[in-house]
Amino acid sequence: MTRENTKSFSVQELIQEKKKKKSTAGIIEKLMPYILFLTAAVSVLTTIGIILTLIFETFLFFDAVSIKEFFTERKWYPFSESEGSYGILPLVSGTLKVTLIAAIVAVPIGLTSAIYLSEYASDRSRRIIKPILEVLAGIPTIVYGFFALTFVTPLLRELIPSLEIFNALSPGIVIGIMITPMIASLSEDAMSAVPNSMREGALALGSTKFEVAIKVVLPAAVSGIVASIVLAVSRAIGETMIVAVAGGSTPNLDWNVTSSIQTMTAYIVQVSQGDAGYGTTIYYSIYAVGMTLFVFTLLMNLLAQYITRRFREEY
Amino acid sequence: MNLINHETVVKRMKPRLAKNSVTKWIFFTATMFGLLVLGVLLYRIFSQGLGYLDLQFLQSLPSRKPEQAGVYTALIGTIWLMAVVAPVSLLLGVGTAIYLEEYAKASKMTNFIKINISNLAGVPSIVFGLLGLTVFVRALALGTSVLAAGLTMSLLVLPVIIVAAQEAIRAVPRELREASFGMGATKWQTIVRVVLPAAIPGILTGGILALSRAIGETAPLVVLGMPLFLAFLPNSLFDMMTVLPMQIYNWTGRPQAEFHALAAAGIIVLLVMLIFMNSIAVLIRNKFQKRY
């Protein structure tokens, strides 16, 4: 009798204990989704923070400089005390020059590499070449900047004697090399996704491999390819250290690629390095330039997302 | 009757076949161009920098005299930076990934978070510098400290970690979760004891790749106003510091050839660190890669 009593008592105790444990476990169970949601909210807050920061400080900039001057003035001389001139066009033209050169280098090399890897290379060589190519994309940009200034520029000056030490050509080419693996890798993914039955159909009709690649695979994968190019160009627009090291600091509104330039990113770096006092027009100008840069790259990224979603071919 | 005229076939096929083999070589050469550039880049940097690379270079403070200069402060600064970036970005990134993969229901809010993350990945790093300058350096008054730099870098690499962790968590098969639920485990218990251990190799691989990106980034730190030249070590999270890429940037910007050689030596140190981290990532991936 007594034995049974103690036994039932201990079971009750166990249940009590278990209930206690359960309640703390239950709290964790209920709380965790909210805590995790908060961590997920950080990335949204980051975006909101970026946008609010840029908007607020840009407004302060437009207190001192008219919006009309910012977009239409053709000179960017923020450092002259008496007649500072804030026209974004020279910085945009510097950025576009570099980006255009990068695209001219990267698009043909990236696309042909993608075609080679997806259509010609054996499985084994693809497994070796693709990761090595992707190493190029992982090299820190300051290393590319050093390479542009100390190797590519002297090399180009042998060919073009009139080339200045700081110019648009050299950083443009090096940025092109940097974004080539991005185009190659993403385009290769898009082309590999084209089903083999389509290739086999074309081959059975008597096409050569080249004709299969150009007339069948390329058109079928075109949305992925275009999206990869748009993404790569967006990366080129936002690239900073290569142009800051090798591009120079002379904002010019022309199409000369042999002379010193300044891009939007390089301007921000130049001001950040110097002692532009907090609250001065020059200090706020980096936010206006950053805003312009942000809008440029955001539009490109949205365009790439739109292309992949809208024109994706499903097989 | 012979329907196929052999000669005509040969005549018509020949240019097409020739075109095929020529273009094949063109495509191959273009692919090799990338590898060639990589080779030239590495050769140039190693031949320029190896002469300056010795123990003294690793143990010396930066100096105006090239023969005495070293990367000690930058190396220690990089370690400090990692001490902030690794925990902050991993906690936030893995938390976000668990939320999106395990808890979030398909709603407009969830969709918005996902689109937001992919857009955040495309924002230029220098814009993160502007964010850090305004929020961490000025508004929270952290100054150009280790903490401000670390938080800025954490936000920069966050999308990389989120995407890697999401893929790792998604790769854990449903059956494992169902078995755990079937044994009476709750959702959080299942996540902590079943899903996360199975996903850890993928998360670590992504985390290391993100960290190696943070090690190489220069632009956001320059915008924060980090000093390019610093002759003392940080003692706390609120001290100033400098990191390897900034030290390299400082040396690259000087006209003398000796400093360019120093920059090359610094680049070798940086690249060795990156190769080391990447090989750890590859090792983890190969060792723990499980197929369910």
Would you give an account of this structure?
The complex is a heterodimer of chains A (about 325) and B (about 290). Chain A has about 325 residues and is mainly α. Chain A contains twelve helices and two strands. In chain A, helix 3 packs parallel to helix 6. The longest helix of chain A is centred in the N-terminal third of the chain and has 63 residues, at about 1-65. The N and C termini of chain A lie far apart (about 75 Å). The model of chain A has no long low-confidence stretch (mean pLDDT about 90). Chain B is built from eleven helices and no strands. The longest helix of chain B has about 45 residues, at about 5-50. Chains A and B meet through helix 1, helix 3, helix 4, helix 5 and helix 6 of A and helix 1, helix 3, helix 4, helix 5 and helix 6 of B.
- The shape of chain A is flat
The share of residues in extended strands of chain B comes to under 5%
Give the low-pLDDT segments of chain B.
none
Which band does the percent of strand residues of chain A land in?
Answer: under 5%
Shape of chain B: flat
Helicity range of chain B: over 70%
Please provide the ordered H/E string of secondary-structure elements of chain B.
HHHHHHHHHHH
Average pLDDT over all residues of chain B:
89
The total count of strands of chain A amounts to 2
Give the number of helices of chain B. Answer: 11
Reading the helices and strands of chain A in chain order gives HHEEHHHHHHHHHH
Mean pLDDT of chain A: 88
Oligomer kind:
heterodimer
How are the strands of the largest sheet of chain A arranged?
Answer: 1-2
Radius of gyration based on Cα positions of chain A: 28 Å
Work out the radius of gyration of chain B: 26 Å
The largest pleated sheet of chain A is described as:
2 strands, antiparallel
